[in-house]
Amino acid sequence: MNTEIIKIILAFLVLINPFSALTLFLDLTRGYSMNNRRKVARVACLTIFITISFFTVAGEVLLNALGISIGSFQLAGGILVFLIALNMMNGEGNPVKPDQENFDVDHVQDSPASMAAAVVPLAIPMMIGPGGISTVIIYSAQVSGVKEVSAIMIAGLFISLFCYAALMAAGRISRLLGDTGLNIMSRIMGMLLAAVSIEIIVNALRTLFPSLA
How many domains does the chain have? Predict the structure, then answer.
């Protein structure tokens, strides 16, 4: 597999981190049949893929429309991702993703359009939030060819499938790892995310100050 795709997959994996949404998924689908649980997981993961695809294609256009240079956005995005990484390493979770306690799960379950909960809040912003969207835009704005854009799309598809597998195994994973195991995994992902954020910041500085290269 192409090294660039692996790097993008790694960035998406630690930012989207489906393990952080397992508890919410289990709460939202409590009492659901296995078939309905699969539907919720499919809608959530399809939403993730569509979001990644949209900002891959439209990310640079949005920046140009707003008059924001890629260097400035890279620097802002890198700092945001680094702050997320620090919080994850401190065991405080992702600061730009909402606390699950803020969601009225019982109200969502009683709603006739309960599948909408797979989109909001499960997929957005619980799994792919501002940090993930910023990273997609940063990567997409750095590429121009069909091959490079396809690499981001492939990474998005891989992560969406991984999220689906994680959600469908939510009960087993939660029992196997427990709160302690999930906390340790979050800290490890935070360390990996810190490395990704530093690379984004370094590339931003090189873009803003070419003499540094």
Answer: 1
